[in-house]
Amino acid sequence: METRDSNWWKESVVYQIYPRSFQDSNGDGVGDLRGIINRLGYLKDLGINVIWLCPVYDSPNDDNGYDIRDFYKIQDEFGSMEDMLELITQAEAYGIRMIMDLVANHTSDEHAWFMESRSSKESPKRDWYIWKPGNEGQEPTNWESNFGGSAWEYDEISQEYYLHCFSKKQPDLNWENPEVRQSIFSMMDWWIDRGIAGFRIDAITFIKKNQQFPHLKSEDDRRYVPLAEACLNQSGILDFLHEMKQEVLEPRNVMTVAEAPGVPIEQIHEYVDEQNGVFNMIFQFDHVDLDAKPMAKGIYHPWKLTEFKHALSKWQIETANKGWMALFMENHDHVRSVSKFGNDGIYHKESAKMLAAYYFLMRGTPFIYQGQEIGMTNYFMASIEEYRDIESLNYHRNETALGRPEADILNYLAIRSRDQGRTPMQWSSEPMAGFTDGEPWIHVNPNYSSINVEEELQDGNSILHFYRELIKLRRDNKALIYGDYHEIYVDSNELGGYVRTYGKECWTVICNFTDQTIPLTDPLEGYVVLSNINNHDDGLLKPYEALICKGEKNADAAAI
Ligand code: TEU
Ligand code: CA
Known about the structure:
The protein contains 17 helices and 22 strands. It is of the alpha/beta class. It folds into 2 domains: 8-106 and 178-222 and 229-385 and 420-470, TIM Barrel (Alpha-Beta Barrel); 484-552, Golgi alpha-mannosidase II (Immunoglobulin-like). Bound molecules: 1-O-alpha-D-glucopyranosyl-D-fructose and calcium ion (CA).
């Protein structure tokens, strides 16, 4: 019988693939399924055992596949259903399970359900989406879409407005309608029958809307107010999620990781409690969004290291006895972590490895986003022409209309745009980084000639090798998976770290987040098992140095 601590998804390391940017196999400049199949050996050698595949379903690509036209079809640019099934089978042969993105808050406006829904007010599928008449010639409410502008779009055909939390080509499904829920659940079953091991569940905290459809109070003179207050983690959402659990997740025993912005820490147990929660784990965004508050205004907000550490450790503490976290530093919606939290200049290598050591050995399942394992960086796109992401393009248009100077907008996008994480995977120093033989759909970061897989495979000291070692270390030491977590250096704005204790074992991770040498006031517990530099000096941490030490638990271990 499986015991609580033998859940495979806890012992796994997940690798996230954004298929458009991973590997092109046919020279059209767009990554594809065949490209992924060709790289399975690389992933196996890295040591990961789960792939989270971002959407590959048929889509007009308004939001790069997060606008699904047909859940049961693979988008032509990525390949065929046969390729998908082959990917699942081949990955399995390498000991890798696949989880797919489940996008169930909305569909594409080109989905057959929506076409039918918009065809007339009397359509049997009318109520599958959220339709409202105008309010004295204006939108039904003043809600602002997550991608900017009104969250309502007027439809000429049926002369009402429909709601879209994201782009106007992503109409929101009406989860109040039981037929909608059933259709989503049977689609999930269908994919599980194809051999996938679970789901990363997209934007799930948006599925319930405040049924009063209130007008939101504005703090400034902007016309629209971010819709979170009425559409994010609304009361009643858990009823829908428990139904999903009962209908699909529990009977099929699949791995689930939910993208769950807006869940307050006090509520985490309702989401991930082992018995009564609904998902195995969630993604929270406090640490990656520190620089973007308030989100609505899109203005850079400075942050301190103590805030960054707290944004991670508070979830560790809250889930200490029950529940589990998804650990991550990057994904396809965020910028590159070495550029944001490390130093992508002279300490590129050291700081990328330090960040890896810092998050990877916390209590939870680590996720690696493609390219993170080689230390891919942001790069400054000098013109809006280089951007592809709908959120960034909308942002640029709306802010320009409000009179914001072009340079300001570009500076903001350089540190927040989702495209920073979407430049092609850097495989080699060949033209186009070995990603494609053709013209890539988005610019390759010019630093590919020095930062690439081929080079790092040859260098035993590379970031890539450090990730391999971390993965192996975690796999071989249960303490690093199941051990208790205790934060150290809580108030330091230079150092960060924690202790993991398990039986007699006691592991310490200590990281220097600065480009200065910092004296260590407390003696190290035990001996150094892994470090990101070759010449550790006792009593000091060099710039961006990280130490992973193993010792024996003693009475004052908790006091360091
Ligand atoms: O993102 C939804 C979402 O909630 C994020 O924008 C989140 O708020 C943000 O990362 C916190 O900083 C998901 C997908 O990941 C994204 O790519 C899609 O565009 C979006 O859903 C719509 O499907
Ligand atoms: Ca291709």
